[in-house]
Amino acid sequence: MKKRIVITGLGTINAIAKNVPDFSTALQNGICGIADLDLFDTAGFRSRTGGQIKNFHVHDYMPREFSTRRMSRADMLALAATIEALRNAGLYLPPDKIKKDMGVVIGGGAGGLLEAEEFYGKLLTTGKRGRFSKLSALFCASSADRIASTFDLMGPKATFMTACSGGGTALGYARDLICNGQASMVLAGGVEPMSRTTYASFNALKSVAADVCRPFDKHREGLSLGEAAAMMVLEDLESALDRGARIYGEILGYGITCDAYHMTAPDEKASGAVRSMQAALKDSDLSPDDIDYINAHGTATPVNDVMETKAIKEVFGRRAYTLPVSSTKSMHAHTLGAAGALEAIVSVLALHHGFIPPTINHRDADPLCDLDYVTSGSRKAGLRAVLSNSFAFGGNNTTLIFGKYSERGVAREQ
Amino acid sequence: MANIPKEVLPVNNDRQTDNAQRVVVTGIGMVTPLGIGKEEFAAGLFSGKTGIAEIKSFDTSAFRSHLGAEVTPFNPRDFISVKNLRRMDKISLFTVAAARMALRDAGVEITEDNRDRTGIVLGTAFGATDVTAQFSGTLLTQGPSSVNPILVPNIVMNAPAGHTSIELGFRGINTTLTHFAVSAETAIAYAAAEIRRGTADFMLTGGADILSKFYYEALTKFRALSPQNGGKEACRPFDRDRNGTVAGEGCGLLFLESLESAISGGRKPYCEIKGVGMGSSPTKPTDWPKDSEGIKLAWNRALKNSFLRANEIQTIFAAANGDQFLDATEARAYEEIFADVETKPFITALKGAMGESFSGGGIRACALALSMGKSILPPTLGLNHPLSPLSFVTANHHDAVVNNAALAGISFGGTYCYLIFSQ
Question: Which residues of B touch A161 (CB under 8 A)?
């Protein structure tokens, strides 16, 4: 029988909360974290807003004796979320026998670009070469190395770089590592820092909203960029039960597909998204009727939201119209490489605490987006299984399915 | 440094007897400093040709290093449609061309019937360093309104795999991962696991990286490149006189499927992917490991996962690249592993001919598959004064009996991924 992989620790820092309990409250209260940026000068850009983590001081989250030398903002955010996840799982600091087989898998994004931009800008404008050691955290695989070396972890490490679906893929891969016996526990998640290059890229593509993103709204004009770190502790059920850990939920399955259509636009026929949801259902041994809530990709770009709505209808049939679907990007913004992992935490909190988070900023219904998008505040609801979508540039689609933990499992309860 | 126990026991009870679960390599595609495609590459590799020369594509006069292993000449039009070609940057051109060659080599056409169960897992250490530097450079000097939106899709590391899927038309699992010098090995392990799990029928997998000016300068500043501490600039893996590595580029992709699928399609496997072992050891982020514990950990996991013992491995395609620490640590690990083993493996380090492209594990995996087919072990170029009494291959070793071979992936930052290939 397939091993059952459960989630026993959560940690996050994002635009609407700096820890998991606050995040849960903010999601239920529909807090918007999209506002003017102060991380860098936004003069000359199409937009000025984003889901920035304000007043981030790394040592509020970790002991002074942990070195942050040469770390990027991304590394520090990832480490802060990891510490919370480990504490939350009762594994801080991890005991020796756990370290030996604990891996780190991360969905990455801009890595140390924010810091590198300062270095490179100075080089190009003044010809002055700063200290190249400032670039040592430029590439985002650095965050996994930092986490592993801080806690002496000896399991596998990998960083997924599929833009907006990397965080989701990281969690699916982490589950496989445990199922295949290549790790007994994995710290898995994603980290995405704000950077000028990322901000300029989405501005250049004219895919950002000027004020706030409005997923599924008739007048939506684009996404809001955000930043976040989101980390989970995954382990197999037996190990969680043995050590008496709190089980937040179970990772039931995932699916990855590709559009093979266009580098930046989703396939309007929605085939990639449909197949990704179907693959995740199959991997989870579930039918569409078992899903109680969908945490949508819902970027609020004109094309995505129509495509995703269409895909949901194709997979769920008539049930699509009664199935709650929301985009929490309306609150925490689109956190790119971290999005799949951050929204996995949303899904798991929804299962664990029994609520459906809302889509905020929604004003006018779009005839092409005609599902239940939970636009008038969060709801209380007992959920059994939640599906979460992440679709990315390059046509990369990842869908994850999480279940509420029960002894028999979601699929076997019917 | 925490204690790592001698016996490492990831549980794996499913001995692979089922043909549907055995993963084989049935195609190879390569864009390398030794040549384009497996014939040109093999001709270069087994004749002891080097891919290392003075860098031609950018000016290195201001730097302390001048050598590189560049891919040249390369005509992407041989492999890629003109319509898609102009949207691609260098790393995507390499990857799409290698993917096309791997499919041709396997003799598989992408059709309506197989496209949703064909995928790619690509490993890249640094991605499109050229495009990112160009885009950021314009942004930082001329402001946001001057940037070129056409560059945006190619900044993200998953662009090469995305372009490959569009050009070749397959729509199954598609992902890109990175972990510095083990990017390609980790990607291959993931792709093989997906075939084994039955979520894909065909997978392309391997690694791609490119040389670019700012990236090369950064490598020199990190003292990664020869001459680290003076002396003549060269790549000398496992040599006492080594003084750093030489930067390289290229792409190597394997075409994977289950043994059952290869048999039913009449495709002759080069070799089987038997197992994988991954691990980490506490190491400073930009340093190569200085102790052998992490290597031994991953090695033991790989053997365990393959149901093999150390004396059953006849050759190791090493990670050594001419770096002071990496090569010494890797050699010491093998001395320790094989101290009590009667039959010692032959060890060869291909980075002597191809330089260090960080995701060169893809090219080395292709070379390994070719070596197994031809029963020839290729030489380690630049190795004249071995630092250890291990059995290094310094000239072509013919008629080699290779039932099982190991591909070593070792990265700075202390990450390890060993793959075991079998006949």
Answer: 124, 127, 156-158, 176-178
Q: Measure B417 CA to nearest chain A CA, in Å.
A: 8
Chain A: closest CA distance from residue B315 (Å):
24
Q: At residue B6, does pLDDT exceed 70?
A: no
Q: A148–B282: do the CB atoms touch at under 8 Å?
A: yes
- The domain A252-403 is placed in CATH, from the list 2.60.40.10, 3.30.70.141, 3.40.47.10, 1.10.600.10, at 3.40.47.10
Q: Do A258 and B127 touch (CB under 8 A)?
A: no
The two counts, helices (H) then strands (E), for chain B are: 13, 13
Please, which residues have CB within 8 angstroms of residue A364's CB and are 6 or more apart in sequence?
A: A217, A218, A219
Q: Which fold has domain B23-265?
A: Peroxisomal Thiolase; Chain A, domain 1 (3.40.47)
- Classify domain B275-422 by CATH number: 3.40.47.10
Contact B169 A183 (CB under 8 A): no
Task: Tell me the pLDDT tens digit for each residue of A355-379.
Answer: 999 999 999 999 999 999 999 999 9
Bond from prior residue into B73 cis (ω within 30 degrees of 0) = yes
Distance from CA of B399 to the nearest CA of A (A): 35
What pLDDT, on the 0 to 100 scale, is given for residue B396?
85
- pLDDT, tens only, B220-229: 999 999 998 8
DSSP state, residue B117: G
- How many angstroms separate the CA atoms of A376 and A365, rounded? 12
Q: ipTM greater than 0.85, yes or no? A: yes
Do A180 and B218 lie within an 8 Å CB cutoff? no
Let me know if B63 is exposed, middle or buried by CB neighbors in 10 A (0-12, 13-18, 19+). middle
Mind telling me the catalytic residues of A? 164, 297, 334
Mean pLDDT for A46-52 is: 96
What does pTM read for this prediction? 0.96
